[in-house]
Amino acid sequence: MPSYLWAYSLSGASEAPTILLHDTFVVNRAAYDLRLPYSRSTLFHTGSPRRGDIVQARLPASIGLGIKRVLGLPGETIEVRENLVIVNGRPLPVNPLDSAEFSWVPMAHRRGSTVVMEDSHWVAYTPGKSEYRHLPPVRLGPGQYFLMGDNRDNSLDSRAFGPVSRGQILGKAIAVFPTGQRVAMSN
What we know:
CATH class: Mainly Beta
Order of helices and strands: EEEEEEEEEEEEEEHEE
Structural class: mainly beta
CATH superfamily: Umud Fragment, subunit A
């Protein structure tokens, strides 16, 4: 019997501080689609990705499988201005956090100097640093999603390769098992 829960270890820093290098995360491959075992054929849809979900997706060939956060949904217009995400002309809610409270994130993650709570999840960036800190408005078509990493300075995501189709999204991250010590996560 095939498993719909898969465990992975994060190999990049694109999701810091939410998920760190070498953390193990579990992906529910049946969260959005029930697929015919050992194939890409969808039997039926079980749900739809929502803003804020961390998903596993097939990204452009040179990248392969990736883990990113859903920020834009089908039919929406997404824009980024100095790391502020704007959906349909309205900025996502952002609250600044004390970046000193994130000193537990290892230096290898190249976490940005600023940490904020963006629409109920952590985001890190350095103002003025990333080449992707600005993005002109992008209108998402039917079945298209806009994915971004939480470590905005160090994430290759939809700001670089564009929206992903619904068929590229494989599942939802439902649990994270940290490696090493860190403070309790609140998101």
